[in-house]
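call fold(seq) -> tokens
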Amino acid sequence: MKERVRLESDTLYAVIAAVSSSADLDRVLGAIVELLTEATECHACFVYLRDGERLRMRAASSIYAHVVGRVEMSLDEGLTGWVARHNEPAFIRDNALDDPRTRHFPELEEERFQSICAVPVPARSGDVLGVIVLHTAAPREFDEGVLSFLAHTASVVAGAIENARLLEDSRRRVEMLTGLASLSQDVAAATRREDLYRVATVSVRRLLQAHACRLYRLDADTGELELAASDPPGDDAPLPGAASSVLLEVLRRPGRRPPPGVAATAEDASLLAAPLAVGEEDVGVLTVAARQRDAFGAREDELLRTAANQVALALKRTELIERLTAENITRDLFDALAAGAGAVAEARARAAGFDLSRRHVILHVVPGDPSAGGPAWPMLAERVETRLRRISAGAVYDHGRQTLRGVAALDGAADELAGVIGELGELGAAEGVHIGMSETRRGPGHAARSLSEAADAARVARALAPTGGAFAYSQLGAYRYLIHLPLDELASDRHSDAIERLIDYDRRRRARLVDTLEEYLHSRGSTAATARKLYVHPNTLRQRLDRIQKITDLDLDDEDLLSLELAIKLVRLRGA
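ret:
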């Protein structure tokens, strides 16, 4: 008896010495396990530490050292979980696997053991920090002396655990603050989005000690998240996929944790996500994943959201830099085209990602009547540009104060060009803008002429489609010769006065007599051809022509029809 007391006392002193010898918790627990294994003559000793609602093995006798960190259970599983849950020791003298509280772990070879003794490791608060477990191969009765010894040992171990965790917590806080400072420097140094994506995912993954980190960008048009970068590249961690739009809504709630089903979570993995937002604008999502459950807590959540805020601001900054750079390049491109500087234009086009050697057209867009209401020009120009890009992908645009110019590749046949004009007309009518398109050309050789053609076509579109529309230069007919006349200096004559009265009649009665007369003149006075083009019966056309003659006091059989047609075009241009 005395010998056992002396041995236990010596062991307890050795435990205290081990606890005092190092601040490294794993090293301390390893030494304690070996001391308890020898002192109690058990076949195996294990130490489990509590992490949330899980118990994880942190130390084991040398023959089972290879399973440390691989064995874990919930508080509802096994005798170890029972001890942690009830905060009281448990003993099984023999046939341990027959006890309903036990759970079999094949890697621990528990079929070899008959007896189990498990004691809780108490925290100062009264909670349970972990559990110490002893296994013996032969049936064994643990008496009060062993219980007392293990309880004292557990108390000493508890102090070591709490001290080590405090130290680890302090060290982790310092690392996090240092990591945040480093992240700030890294993202501030990135001037391109691709560089920022890479820096952010690498730095955040390192900061949170995660298995993987992904950065998703929000597509403003579709509302879907698109993967922008991941570290490591091509990782297979459980991260959001098809449920991206739902995930964004979840991320607006406190906690930022996606519920089951929103993200591809698994039993042995955990996910944490934070929105990339600037003010009320969501720009994406930043996610980290770990291979074990409950890897992230409130501190990691706060840290990720802080990092996400820094990354979001940096993203907006890099986008602004890129936009200003792109605007300078495109402005230089159009200046070079206007000046006929072919080599400079080709170089600027290449920098903007456009090949001038392809067949292309110049587009010229001007706003409609500002008194009609609607968004301000800068906002309207961006909206129009977005829709134009759907018609011709890869085009380059330059925003002016009251114009939007573009160069777009059109490699298709004539029927495809006609389809493009139709789409431009629909866009112009929908947005209330006037769009002109030049002839198709290759190279920068006739760029100045193309710019002039597109501007002329837009001006005619304003005259002929006042509520919005589009014209190609090839459609202008006689308007291309009249557009540059000094319209304000041209004297009014009998024909122009007559057309003014007819336009006023159309405006008041919401009629289309001017269009009817213009088509009649364009068809060289043919009633049948005009009725066919206007999709009306010839008798209906004759009635319209009679009304036109009464309003204008013109006799269409005796008038100079060419002069009258030119008068219509001039009055329309002057009115615009």
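The first strand starts at residue 44 and ends at 51.
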